C-alpha cells in the first residue's frame, strides 16, 4: 500500500517565496520510502478548494501544513497570518481523517500556542526532515510516537513537547530540489533559497532564529552547498538568496563554501545575496564571496549607537560598520544595513546618532524598522514580563490584551521616543532615497516585502535578486546586476 504524506504550503504572499524547506523534507521522506505530495496554495485562487481537492485525491498518513511566519513582523502594518492558517487547518480536519501536523519556522517559535490555535493533532518544532518521517512511521504503527524528536502533541489534556532534533544537517539526504516548482517561484519571486548552515549562536535579545533553528550552528559541507546551487541551475535558476541566519558565522566555513563554488566555476554563472553580521566580516571574505558569485550583502546592523548595540546584545561595535562598508566597496559588493530602532533604552539622541552614521557611511541602502517584535522565549520577552502586565507597559504596542503567549503581533517601542516617533525618524531621514522607511506618502511598501506590488511588477518585467536590491535598482533606474 502506498504511504502518502501531503505537504501544504500555506504562504500566499507576493512576491512568491519558494518553500525550500518542503523540498528538503521531501528528500528525507523518500529515503524512508514515503511518497510526498504537495499542494502549493501560493498559486491557487481558491486555497480552501485546492486543499479540499488534494485531500480527495489519495489516502494520507499525514497532512502537514507549513507556517513560514506568524505575522509580517512589522509594526507599521502588523499583519497577522495565523487566522488564515487556522481556516486551512479547519478545512483539512473536515475533509480528511489523516492526522494534521504543523511545522515550519514560524510554527517553531510558538509551538504550543499554534498547535492549540489550529486544533492540530501534532506539531514538529525545529528541524522537520527526520521527525516528520518518524512521525509518519509511528502513525503507520511502525514506531512509538514518544520517540519522535521535536514532536508537540496532546496527552492527558496537556500539550507535551519532545526535545528537538539537532543532528548534523550535513548527514541529511542529498537535496534534489524536486518537489516544489522552483522555476515558477523564480519567475514570479525573482530568486531561490539555499541553505549553507542552520542555527544561530548569537545573543541578540530579540531574535527568533535561535528559537526556530537552534542555538548551535550546524553546517553543511561546501560540496553539498555547491551541489544544491548546481541542481537549481539545471532548472533554469541563477539568482539566489542564502537563508542562513548569518553567512559569516563561522567565517572559516563561509570561506570554504566560497572557495568550492569558485573552484567549480559557479561564481561566473550565479548571482547570490546573503545576510551577514558586521562582526568578523573582512576584506578577504568579501573578495572570496565576490569570486563565488555574491553580489550583495544585508547586514543586521540594528543601530549606530554603542549603548544600543550593547542593549540589544550585539557582538560588534560602531566602528565595525564602517569597516564592513569599506570591505564591500573594495570587493565590488552592494550592501545594505538593517536598522532596528526603538528597543529598550532607545532615545531620540541615539536614533539621531544612528541615522547620522548611516548617512556618513553611505551604504547602498538602509532599512529602517521602528519597533521590535517580541517573541516568547527571548530575553526581551523575559524582560517585558518582569515589568508587569503587558497592557500596563508604556513601551509596548500592538496586541497587549489577552496575548500572554505573545502569539499575536506585539512590539517594543521605547516610550522615550515620544508619541511622534515615526514622524521624528522620518524628519531625520529627510527624504533620503537610500533609506527604506514607511511614510504616509510612501506607505508600508517602502520597506515591507509582503504583498509588495512594486516588487511583483518589477520581477514580472525581468528584475531578479534580493528584494532590497530590486527596490534599489528601481529607484536608481538600474536593472542590471554587476557582471
Short structural summary:
The chain is of the alpha/beta class.
List the helices and strands and how they pair.
Layout: E1 4-9, H1 20-31, E2 35-40, H2 47-56, E3 60-66, H3 82-95, E4 100-103, H4 105-109, H5 111-118, E5 122-124, H6 129-139, E6 151-155, E7 158-161, H7 182-189, E8 192-194, E9 197-198, H8 209-213, E10 218-219, H9 222-234, E11 239-242, H10 251-263, E12 271-276, H11 283-291, E13 294-302, H12 306-311, H13 318-331, E14 334-341, H14 348-361, E15 365-370, E16 372-373, H15 379-386, E17 396-398, E18 410-412, H16 421-429, E19 435-436, H17 453-460, H18 467-476
Parallel strand pairs: 1-2, 1-3, 3-4, 4-5, 8-11, 11-12, 12-13, 13-14, 14-15, 15-19
Antiparallel strand pairs: 5-6, 6-7, 9-10, 16-18, 17-18
Helix pairs in contact: 1-6, 2-3, 9-10, 10-11, 11-13, 14-16, 17-18
- Radius of gyration (Å): 22 Å
Helix content range: 25-40%
Write down how many β-strands occur, each being a DSSP E stretch of 2 or more residues: 19
Annotated CATH homologous superfamily of the largest domain: tm_1862 like domain
- N-end to C-end Cα span: 52 Å
Mean pLDDT: 94
What portion of residues belong to β-strands? 15-25%
CATH architecture of the largest domain: Alpha-Beta Horseshoe
Stated plainly, the CATH topology of the largest domain is called pyruvate-formate lyase- activating enzyme
Count the DSSP helices: 18
Give the overall shape: globular
Class inferred from helices and paired strands: alpha/beta
